[in-house]
Amino acid sequence: MSRAQCPRCLRPQTHCLCDLIPQLDSHTRVVLLQHPSEVNHALNTARLAALGLTNAELRVGEVFEDLHTLLNPPGYQTRLLFPGEGAQPLQADAAATEKLLLVVPDGTWRKARKLLHLNPLLAQLPRVTLPEGAVSRYRLRKAPGPGALSTVEAIVQALDILEAPASYAPLLRPFEALIEGQIEAMGADTYQRNHVTEPPL
């Protein structure tokens, strides 16, 4: 028998995160395009980000038929938060006359690249990246490389840059609780054995 699920955060009712999810405003609009394989993942951080931001939208799919309309709201300039050739470091632009629409693919690196391949309009967007050196709090997945962040962490860092001096750190509260809950569920011994690495000498 399956456990009762919260319809909002999709966590088991006994581990609902809704009380920790803030409601934060932003001038920047965030559109998250989530690969379907991530929807039922226990660590679905894109959903947490979308729930915590009033000016955010989460879409799930591999091909998005209304992408042209989604990417071109009046009065916005659109950027894709994804590394690649020609990607510019993200920075606040006080002189900008248009607001920013930040498009964030959500999935493994391979699945995110697939979203770009299946949706050529995405691949054509100007790209922006986060500053180097970010350290993830995501202690349950091995990062594919230095600076790799979960989706919610990347969004928090991006908005902290774009909307300074405002802080979007409250978005990380449910994320931290999610991580702690997963560690507790697997047991300290299993976590230490499989996820904690010895610091280099």
Overview of this protein structure:
With 201 residues, this protein is an alpha/beta fold. It has a single domain, classed as Alpha/beta knot, CATH 3.40.1280. A 6-stranded parallel sheet has the order 2-1-5-3-6-4. Strand 1, helix 1 and strand 2 form a beta-alpha-beta unit. Helix 1 runs parallel beside helix 5. The protein starts with 28 loop residues before the first strand and ends in a 6-residue tail after the last helix.
Q: How would you sum up this structure in a few lines?
A:
Keywords: S-adenosyl-L-methionine, Transferase, tRNA processing. This protein is α/β, with parallel strands linked by helices and 201 residues long.
Notable features of this structure?
6-stranded parallel beta sheet, alpha/beta, 201 residues, 7 helices, disordered C terminus, globular, Alpha/beta knot
The total count of helices amounts to 7
Q: What fraction of the residues are assigned to beta strands by DSSP? A: 5-15%
The CATH class is identified as Alpha Beta
**Total of domains:** 1
By secondary-structure content and strand pairing, the structural class works out as alpha/beta
Mean pLDDT: 85
Query: Runs with pLDDT <50, length 5+?
Result: 142-146, 195-201
Main β-sheet description: 6 strands, parallel
Coarse morphology? globular
CATH architecture: 3-Layer(aba) Sandwich
Q: What is the count of β-strands?
A: 6
Helix content: 25-40%
The CATH topology annotation reads as Alpha/beta knot
